Fold this sequence. Notes:
By secondary structure, the chain is an alpha/beta fold. It is built from nine helices and seven strands. α1 (about 40-50) packs across α8 (about 245-255).
Amino acid sequence: MSNDDGPQGLPAPPPLGSSALSAGTFDGTAVLITGAGTGLGKGIAVEFARLGASIVIASRKQDNLDAGRAAIEELGAPVETVVCDIRDPDSITAMVGAASEAFGLPRVCVNNAAANFPVPAEDMSPNAWRTVVDITLNGTFFVAREFARRHLAANTPASIINIGASYAWTGGPGFAHSAAAKAGVKNMVESLAVEWGPYGIQVNGLVPGLIPHEDMTADITANLQRADPEKDLLQPAMRVGTRREFGWAATFLASPYAQFISGHTLVVDGANWQRRFMTNPTVVPVRQQMNRGPFNPDP
């Protein structure tokens, strides 16, 4: 290929159904995944199921649970669904209990459930702030805590993966609630990995880049719809990611081949969050980006 052909971006991933791990890597292993009925969570669940895991899907919504169950059953893997509100520690205790009753105490826990929506900070209600932080940060901790307590009592090894976001490092204008919560989730990975490592529990983070799925916020969906893939080079990879790539990363982190990796947050985004401009781009205020008028303290 000559230089005249221009940049080509990162190669496409192997086809759906491929895996770098050996078939049966997770045979006899139960994996608990919150928010796994749709979106990236379902993509993670599918890849664990392909490798032999028994899957426990937790969600507040029965429709999401049904969708997740259908995807796992299609693969012929064992699956259980549990209604759970991760804001409620009692609900979490019941969830882990139900998972253990179905398949034995899960060895892997993926904290995928979160809440998010764009809003200028000055327009954000106290309830909006509390809801996002309560689900994304508090819920992640409560689930990790209950899961770890069971393994500490049983003296068994385990793996926890917390799904994060790259604006935990950079900040997220328009997403102050979520960015603050995800920064807490990243710090939690680093703290808990040290606390629980002596007991055989590894804790890692996993961050997605632009990976199209049905749970994307409206602003991301609109940006994708406006973009012309033939002209708009929106990120260094010159393509979006796929759910299977994110799922492959999750299965690796929880696999026997990654036992010495703990306290790390892996970003799967084709280097998009690290790009910088040689000259500063024009500043567009968040309100303008969201097509909102001047701030009104008394709407």
